[in-house]
């Protein structure tokens, strides 16, 4: 992948992710996004972190169930999603340290942007984050 990677996401998916983040503004929400033939599906997974207001840890059972559902639908893991209730839509040091799927896009929503929701995409590899330009399409 090159440094100026651009991805087009359907507005319906972006709205679903931002709505999930808004529904729990005091905690990081998280989940997986599956893809098949240009169609995307969001799989919410419970955040079981000890400090869910500043960290996310996907419920292992929920993550396994989401991956199984993707497999059954012929989808592949497209993205890992989580929100930052107060921080920017950039990977934290913890996000970088714990990233385990370099093939997946990491989508981060920020609620800490003075009323304007933000969704950003990154490739996380070997402790480094590379921004991906997201294009939202109707």
Quaternary state, please? single chain
The geometry reads as globular
Lateral arrangement of strands in the main beta sheet: 1-7-6-5-4-2-3
The domain tally reads 1
Low-confidence stretches: none
User: Using only CA atoms, what is the Rg?
Assistant: 14 Å
**Overall residue-averaged pLDDT value:** 93
The assigned structural class equals: alpha/beta
Helix-residue proportion:
10-25%
Largest sheet: 7 strands, mixed
CATH fold assignment:
Cytidine Deaminase, domain 2
Q: What share of residues are in beta strands?
A: 35-45%
- The H-level CATH homologous superfamily, spelled out, is Cytidine Deaminase, domain 2
Straight-line distance between termini:
25 Å
Order of helices and strands: EHEEHEHEEE
What does this structure look like?
- The structure is a single chain.
- With 138 residues, this protein is of the alpha/beta class.
- The protein has a single domain, classed as Cytidine Deaminase, domain 2, CATH 3.40.140.10.
- It has three helices and seven strands, in the order E-H-E-E-H-E-H-E-E-E.
- The chain has a seven-stranded mixed β-sheet with strand order 1-7-6-5-4-2-3, with helices on both faces.
């Amino acid at each position: 992948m090159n440094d100026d990677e651009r991805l087009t996401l359907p507005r319906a998916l972006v709205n679903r992710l931002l709505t999930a983040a808004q529904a729990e503004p005091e905690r990081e929400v998280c989940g997986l996004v599956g893809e098949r033939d240009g169609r995307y599906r969001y799989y919410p997974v419970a955040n079981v972190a000890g400090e869910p207001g500043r960290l996310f840890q996907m419920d292992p059972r929920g993550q396994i169930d989401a991956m199984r559902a993707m497999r059954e639908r012929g989808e592949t893991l497209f993205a890992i999603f989580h929100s930052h209730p107060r921080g920017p839509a950039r990977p934290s040091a913890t996000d970088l340290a714990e990233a385990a799927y370099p093939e997946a896009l990491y989508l981060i929503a920020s609620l800490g942007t003075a009323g304007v929701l933000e969704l950003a995409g990154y490739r996380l590899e070997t402790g480094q984050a590379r921004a991906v330009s997201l294009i939202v399409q109707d």
